[in-house]
Design goal:
three-stranded antiparallel beta sheet, globular, two-stranded parallel sheet, 153 residues, 6 helices, alpha+beta
């Protein structure tokens, strides 16, 4: 892991982030309760774990989160623009990962009929929603890892 200086934010902004994370945690309880209430008997833990793994699998492979985060933060990107953003990724790996993200419905490969043909990768609505939903988890981890700290002004 790369060692970086933490981002310093005001106490007010830190509280906003913390409050938002807490709101998501509370909503998570509601969602969990709804799922659990739909079992006729006991919770099927094997199904629950398998479903969680399947849901998060795309985000747990090398380079996928970097690709999705780059497009989420920087906007639509051409192939070589992405390769420059993602230091160390090979063209083959980038191509394979983009195809996988496209097959999962997270990325759209937009071929523009120009001369020469221009291909731009952008997030689908599903990809944007996944990014927004993962935002609180990422924010929580930033706080826990000390990547974001309070800075009293």
């Amino acid at each position: 892991m790369i060692t970086m200086k933490p981002m310093k934010i005001s106490d007010e902004d830190y509280k906003k982030v913390s409050d938002s994370i807490e709101a998501v945690r509370e909503e998570g309880k509601v969602i969990r309760s709804v799922f659990e209430s739909n079992y006729e008997e006991k919770v099927d833990l094997e199904w629950e774990v398998d479903s969680a793994v399947a849901a998060l699998e795309i985000f747990s492979t090398r380079w996928t989160i970097e690709i999705l985060a780059s497009i989420f933060l920087a906007g639509p990107q051409r192939f070589n623009e992405l390769r420059k953003l993602l230091k160390g990724i090979s063209s083959r790996t980038l191509s394979d990962k983009l195809k996988k993200c496209e097959s999962m419905g997270l990325v759209i490969r937009d071929v523009q009929a120009t001369t020469p043909i221009k291909v731009v990768y952008r997030l689908s609505e599903h990809g944007k929603m996944a990014g927004r939903l993962l935002g609180p988890v990422i924010a929580y981890q930033k706080l826990q890892l000390g990547r974001v700290v309070r800075h009293s002004i």
